[in-house]
């Protein structure tokens, strides 16, 4: 048996550990061979595939990024499933492990369920927005980097008696903002799931300021203030209710400064959150997911993905996991709010 | 209402975050007051107690150690439950949050269940050996420190073509060795739950060496080789089957060197694993546990402890959790073994 | 004797270690008292001053920021030297240690030399742009943070086959870009002292790309491409040769992408470089500078500052140090260029 | 021209950056070729040598250890200089860059000066004990790791009201203990250059304890208490004035506990200080030294080594540098003592 493995979509810490886990498990427990597919679906469509041995995955558990490269190529582009079948046959590949986020897994589910292609999945989303798994790998590392960054920013904010607005990843969900905000003791946490009006933000900032703290505002990139549309309308601004180009942190900082009178600066963590060596937590999770994916490929569990349930790695139908976002639930938001201000 | 809070037994990263979480939640959601009990049961028995305000817990989520101090004083010493009742009454304290490990919680359970004292618990064990919770706080930080240390040691081992034996915490269970060993790509992982004979260890070391790697052996402090008794008997050694004073790593290193011919060094991480700022993961877990404990105290859930179940904080009877160790199960050991050698 | 101490201008890692060093040395070796002046010259002009004891400076060597606060208040505002004389007399303060950058030290020099005020200095500039000292404290920490950040960004750049433009501090000089760029193995380093034309930048990027690397461009915030004026003129752009609001990294990224065809992203490290715990190097340097400043105050070395010469702390006339920037010299730039591309 | 390069003696952070700097500079500025000599003098004596290209040194600036391996083989063993001449001739190698510590450089000096071999040097000693250079690379990283470790240990010491004894590297000199002790705010620093009697150590510990601190004792591995001989004689102990097998920290801890009544624990940092990614400071220093060494080889500066003088890389005769240890001078010790207790 020969298993192809690929990483697709945005990269994240832990991809290499998944690859290593899968190859080690496959090679040692099942005596199967591996092939590395370059840059996600692109490599499968363009036949950019090379052998991948246990030698190639040595020392990978702690290395950031992905040795296989990644791209956002769509699986139904450039020949689509038919072309894939050709390539798999030509290469003698009997199974594909697709590691990727919502888009990748939706594609993988369709390929497996509708086209009959031999695909299993491993979920990867730094934002932790994928249902069907307790946590996704990469999320812990991103939260750790954000937390460490906020720790740093706090010291300079306190020295200058400033408010600091920190923008973290999270286009649709606020998990990183929630965890990093709680871990670093933020005074305001702003997430897409629970839009609050400007006044609430200012109140949190003032409350921290009144107690002599340098207010720390953590905002997910996808957050939009509840009354942003009205504010824009009232000001006759052309902006249409969406954060402007510079991002939400840059938009909020001057507004907070104006409303509260406290000097306010913004920082956008951006790509820093994706990079570097994964945390021990993510390395363990990734390795286990990779090992489980090798088992799934050998057992021909097409259309399934490896996922975390409490302390166990289990199997979940990809089609069930990809149809909805995992949002921060009301209970976690209520818990967080007690700590704000 | 006034809630006393204390930390007892060995310290660990996250204790301060639990304290902060409890005080913030209690003060803000329930309008209760807090009192800080110094050095665990000692402070309760000797009436070493001071007010603890939200001001006192500012900025604590990322600070290592415990601002309340800790000790190993036994709750049934120095007056015991009767003396505690006196002190609680005199101080007007209506509930006690006890944060500690197996011993502390066993004491807390007995005080609550048998003596009718108003005690709730928060489990803390760096070793992660407590049943009734998915993970305990402090464990992630310890695993992270061990992983980072092994990453470091690997570079010097490779330069010198040496084998490196790293001793991590884990007197009765091998969770830290398991996680750090998997995260850092160790070639041998030795844990108390699954004693292996010397020859297996040497085989793992030789296998790594044969592939050109610098063999990394991670050993939990409580590991004893399966055939240690025989080895000792055969050599006419006075050592009686227990690791000698210097610890298991120091004992193994020269044996590995002798058996495999590869120069071998040992490092004992020791207290480093307890210290310093907790990881983001542990800060979030600790904060949530502290907040839940404040709720439990207010709701008079005596004899219960806050614990982690998947992604939720739940309540568990302390008496049920403390009666057995949470050992590394066979399935996790089998999973690990595939990666060794 | 009573010594006032203050921090002024932008904050930086190591300020607290200077304060601690000065107070410990003064209290223990000279038996003098200290007073903490809040927020730089503001505290001196507004009499915002409190006693500062060895107790207050406990554990400060590793803490970022400044416990005394800082501001950009000008020493000749609000009453100026006359007002300072009044406040110093009223408080019984016989000497002032002023810790700050070019502006602060220029003010301190004038106060000491022209007004006869009892002021000594400690140089602080993260940018390392101050003459009269080998290095300033804070610079090593900022370079370390920038280096670690570039290490992180490299992994994500490589996974996506992208070029990454990283903007670091350095309005007038390129020391941080030079050191972080060399430490992290950047393919292009752009500093204000040596403007290069766009084509050179693109050539460096292409050269790295041709060798299969993800090109890393490190740019100091004050860098302006040599032919920027022409480019702007040719395009009929209204921009007048200065980097646009978003910063030089944001300006360069799309130009590099257009010219080289490689997808390019930018990251601005900003305030992250000022924050957090200082490196061991900066802690040692800061502590020693603070200790030397206490000696200088006791010995009435008005108008002098403590500075680093090789491995020794020496005294330098502030007026001599502040009249010119310490730029990256041609020799260091030539050395760097060999490594680029 | 072809230049051989080797690393010899104990490894340390920055070796790879030196190699990369030399190869990049030689290849790009001088168009010379490189050959990698495996495991120090062993590779030269046993002709274990391979080509080393710029491709081989990609991404090395931040990697710990040495890709060339190292050993403690003596240059006058196994054929010695005559054999080396043969190998160099056979391989067409015109110059050798030897990177190593006191022993390596003493050998290199003799080979160059007495035997006429074409050897230049780069000094490497983590202990910073080599004269003729301000600092050696690796020292900053080791000091940083020790500082971070002491920061960690402090939190657990404070929680338990314990004294912590931390043993750092430094067989003959106390530079790491001095810098890490100052950076981390230690209460006692014990270095070989300035032996103090037991009573002074106890006094420092008690003084910290009296002020409510958890006493931190940093001891260089080569420290011997001034009156150790007497203590041993008085106790009728067989130990002859040298630290016993377990190291000085293990020896001191129970004595401190007995004398002061404070519970005392010891930690030996050992190999951790050699491992892992070098600091930004060490990467810059190493890269510059490597580049300078390539120049020296091209310019046939036999018998010289690259060294740091203030901010410049200069050349120093190896024979002059290796004949004496660089000890911590009295002035630095006096400076340190003010901060102790």
What's the overall geometry of chain A? elongated
Into how many domains do the coordinates of chain A divide? 2
Gross CATH architecture of the largest domain in chain A? 3-Layer(aba) Sandwich
Structural class by helix and strand composition of chain A: alpha/beta
CATH domain fold name of the largest domain in chain A: Rossmann fold
Helix content of chain A: 40-55%
Protein name (chains A, B, C, D): ATP-dependent 6-phosphofructokinase
Binding site for Mg(2+) (chains A, B, C, D): 102
GO molecular function (chains A, B, C, D): 6-phosphofructokinase activity; AMP binding; ATP binding; diphosphate-fructose-6-phosphate 1-phosphotransferase activity; fructose-6-phosphate binding; identical protein binding; metal ion binding; monosaccharide binding
Active site (chains A, B, C, D): 127
């Amino acid at each position: 048996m020969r298993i192809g493995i690929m990483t697709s979509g945005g990269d994240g810490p832990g991809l290499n550990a998944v690859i290593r886990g899968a190859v080690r498990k496959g090679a040692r427990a099942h005596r199967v061979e591996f092939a590395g597919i370059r840059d996600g679906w692109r490599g499968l469509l363009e036949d950019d595939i090379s052998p991948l041995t246990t030698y190639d995955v040595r020392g990978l558990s702690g290395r950031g990024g992905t040795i296989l490269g990644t791209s956002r190529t769509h699986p139904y582009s450039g020949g689509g499933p038919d072309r894939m079948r050709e390539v798999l046959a030509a290469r003698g590949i009997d199974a594909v492990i697709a590691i990727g986020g919502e888009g990748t897994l939706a594609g993988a589910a369709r390929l497996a369920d509708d086209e009959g292609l031999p695909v299993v999945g491993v979920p990867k989303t730094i934002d932790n927005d994928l249902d069907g798994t307790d946590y996704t790998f990469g999320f812990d590392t991103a939260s750790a980097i954000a937390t460490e960054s906020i720790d740093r920013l706090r010291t300079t904010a306190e020295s200058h008696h400033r408010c600091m607005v920190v923008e973290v990843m999270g286009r649709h969900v606020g998990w990183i903002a929630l965890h990093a905000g709680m871990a670093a003791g933020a005074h305001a946490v702003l997430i897409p799931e629970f839009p609050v009006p400007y006044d609430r933000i200012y109140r949190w900032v003032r409350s921290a300021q009144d107690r002599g703290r340098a207010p720390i505002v953590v905002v997910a990139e996808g957050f939009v203030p509840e009354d942003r549309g009205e504010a824009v309308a009232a000001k006759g601004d052309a902006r249409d209710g969406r954060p402007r180009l510079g991002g939400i942190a840059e938009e909020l900082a001057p507004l907070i400064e104006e409303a509260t009178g406290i000097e306010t600066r913004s920082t956008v963590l951006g790509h820093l959150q994706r990079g570097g060596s994964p945390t021990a937590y993510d390395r363990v999770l990734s390795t286990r997911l990779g090992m489980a994916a090798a088992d799934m490929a050998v057992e021909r569990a097409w259309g399934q993905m490896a996922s975390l349930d409490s302390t166990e790695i289990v199997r979940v139908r990809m089609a069930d996991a990809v149809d909805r976002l995992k949002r921060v639930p009301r209970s976690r938001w209520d818990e967080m709010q007690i700590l704000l201000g």
